[in-house]
Amino acid sequence: MALQPSLQPLIVAGNPTAPHTLDIFLDYVCPFSAKMANAIQNILKPLLEEGVYQGKAKVIVRLQVQPWHSASTLTHEAALAVLRASPANFWAYSLALFKAQEEYFDIPTANLTPLKIREKLIALAATILPANEVDEVRELLKLKGSANGGVAITDDLKYNVKFARQNGIHVSPTVLWDGLIAGEISSGWGESEWNDFLQNKIKV
């Protein structure tokens, strides 16, 4: 499916020019999304980047803010700031954020201000990015001069939210195969289930 050029690093597995597309909607504070992220890293990347499926399909991570979790917006802002400042490290940061996601659940963040949560997210980026890129992430996450202006990557966040809304995405993870919801896909799938799915969908 279409992808805004500045957000090309959201293609996290497979060849960007591959004919088939898995759009996978993930929320950084969703435990099932964390399971799906691990499947992308450990199952889909190897399947799509080597062997019979190489060059046949790609995975686009679609950031799915779920506002009933108060820290969801802030985690997605941080990931988009990393994407802007250090595109090559976006997926590594995403995996680290999923691994640390319990720190951003409702109760652990209940007494933290948005600024404190952003500082935690920047500190996490510092474990992956070089110092100059961490400084850029910090700048991107600073509130703008106007009282309701958001941050520098607010437009990127809006793009992701609008994309999910126009496609009727309600829960995470949700997976689209070539633009249509593939409701049979589960975050609990292992290599066997994914291989069967791809074998059925791709004529190699």
Automatic annotation (TrEMBL):
UniProt cross-references to Pfam families, sorted A to Z: Thioredoxin_4 (PF13462)
Superkingdom as given in the UniProt entry: Eukaryota
Ranges for domain Thioredoxin-like fold: 11-181
SUPFAM superfamilies for the chain: Thioredoxin-like
InterPro entries per the UniProt record, alphabetical: Thioredoxin-like_fold, Thioredoxin-like_sf
First and last residue of the signal peptide: none
Annotated protein name in UniProt: Thioredoxin-like fold domain-containing protein
